[in-house]
């Protein structure tokens, strides 16, 4: 495991950290300088979560029944075709 893998939080850990940051910022009890630092950290965590979701999305494959067998097709969340042949 590389150093980056050891220090990069999982999606769940990043979301938990992000939720704590948002709660602190929403409380209004944070001095301006600390609020800016928290905001920057939150933006990094948000970007990390987005990247992790994109990675997972690329890994998802949908099995479609086609011509009596199964074929693999990359998952496309925006696709309206629900396995129907066009």
UniProtKB/TrEMBL annotation:
It is an enzyme of class 3 (hydrolase). Pfam families: Exonuc_VII_S. GO terms for biological process: DNA catabolic process. It is found in: Cytoplasm. Its main location: cytoplasm. Keywords: Cytoplasm, Exonuclease, Hydrolase, Nuclease. Signal peptide: none annotated. The keyword Cytoplasm applies. The keyword Transferase does not apply. One of its GO terms (cellular component) is cytosol. Its EC number is 3.1.11.6. InterPro entries: Exonuc_VII_S, Exonuc_VII_ssu_sf. It catalyses: Exonucleolytic cleavage in either 5'- to 3'- or 3'- to 5'-direction to yield nucleoside 5'-phosphates. One of its GO terms (molecular function) is exodeoxyribonuclease VII activity. Bidirectionally degrades single-stranded DNA into large acid-insoluble oligonucleotides, which are then degraded further into small acid-soluble oligonucleotides. Belongs to the XseB family. Heterooligomer composed of large and small subunits. NCBIfam families: PRK00977.1-4, xseB. PANTHER family: EXODEOXYRIBONUCLEASE 7 SMALL SUBUNIT. This is Exodeoxyribonuclease 7 small subunit. It comes from Paenibacillus validus. The gene is xseB.
